[in-house]
Amino acid sequence: MTRSLLSLCALLVCISTSFAHPVSFTDGKVLQAWIQPKRADIKLNYTLKNNLAVGVSATSIERQKKRYNFTYAQGNVLLKRWNMEQAQANLYTSLGVGGRSGDAGPSIVGYAGVQADYETRRVYTLFAADTLRSKELAGFTRFKYRFGLSPYLAGYDSVQTWLVTQVDHMPTMDDEWMITPLIRLFYKNYLFEAGSSTEGQVFIQGMIHF
Amino acid sequence: MKTLLLLIASLIIPLGSIHAETIDITVNGMVCSFCAQGIEKKIKKIGAVSTITVDMDTKVVTIITKDKQTIPDETLRKIIVDSGFAIKDITHRE
């Protein structure tokens, strides 16, 4: 019974919504940055067509008191989108290649990721997984689950508020699991998120598309 | 007879052309105002557009054109699809 309940909860969380669409609108540019105590990412991408975006990313990760920096070019593909009357769901994949610097020295790095999301105006859910791989180093793999609820329905020109719980599972990191309640706000083409994990670790994300 | 036709034409033609057109586009998948900004951005680039409003409740994008101008459905369809959404319906009214 408990296992079934946990499986159901996990499924509901996995069906959660998107926090950032890796592909936006044709000719759209997205600048995105997020910061956690042991990982920071910044991404800039350009959407060539409604199912393909290209961009550059920089990621800095701290593990066992060592710092690793990755810079890579990235392609994001929208594999499938479901546009429904009251909902949207998406399936994405990403691939990238670049270089590593930092405490482990220089090396070529590969990046791969998948993301599935579903959202209505009230409920937002997302599942994402990505990995950074380079020579002579255990990969940095991250599984991200999100589930969010909007306490009210906002108009097009109003501030939209979401209350979101994010669960990160990073098998090769010092903190394997991290649960972060956060608030997510967006207004026009600006998005801001801030939260603190149950261990007191701060999470901040900002995004703009133009 | 010719005078009568000219008189009728002079009365009808201005009535049909001086007014702006209102176009309502019902959009499927438009559940996030942050994601729907692309629609507004692209539609504003069309020279014939006077104003645009987006209603998240009804999922309707309403465009009012400049006087004597219209926008073909195909142009609107491409913009909505390029923005990542799907069109359910387009209606034109004066």
Could you outline the blueprint of secondary structure elements for this entry?
The complex is a heterodimer of chains A (210) and B (94).
Chain A: H1 2-14, E1 29-36, E2 39-49, E3 52-63, E4 66-83, E5 88-102, E6 107-119, E7 123-134, E8 140-149, E9 160-169, E10 177-187, E11 190-196, E12 202-209
Antiparallel strand pairs in A: 1-2, 1-12, 2-3, 3-4, 4-5, 5-6, 6-7, 7-8, 8-9, 9-10, 10-11, 11-12
Chain B: H1 2-17, E1 22-28, H2 37-44, E2 49-55, E3 60-65, H3 73-82, E4 86-93
Antiparallel strand pairs in B: 1-3, 1-4, 2-3
Structure described in brief:
With 210 residues, chain A is mostly beta strands.
Characterise the protein shown here.
Chain A has 210 residues and is mostly beta strands. Chain A contains 1 helix and 12 strands; from the N terminus they run H-E-E-E-E-E-E-E-E-E-E-E-E. A 12-stranded antiparallel β-barrel of chain A has the order 1-2-3-4-5-6-7-8-9-10-11-12. In chain A, a hairpin with a 2-residue loop joins strand 2 (39-49) and strand 3 (52-63). Chain A is globular. Mean pLDDT of chain A is 88; it is low at 1-19. Chain B has 3 helices and 4 strands. Chain B has a 4-stranded antiparallel beta sheet with strand order 2-3-1-4, covered by helices on one side. The longest helix of chain B has 16 residues, at 2-17. Chain B is elongated, with a radius of gyration of 17 Å. The two termini of chain B are 31 Å apart. Mean pLDDT of chain B is 86; it is low at 13-17. Chains A and B meet through strand 4 of A and helix 2 and strand 2 of B.
Give the neighbour order of strands across the main sheet of chain A. 1-2-3-4-5-6-7-8-9-10-11-12
Overall radius of gyration of chain B: 17 Å
What gross morphology of chain A would you assign?
globular
Report the principal-axis shape of chain B. elongated
Label this structure with key terms.
heterodimer, A: 210 residues, mainly beta, 6% helix, B: 94 residues, alpha+beta, four-stranded antiparallel sheet, 30% strand
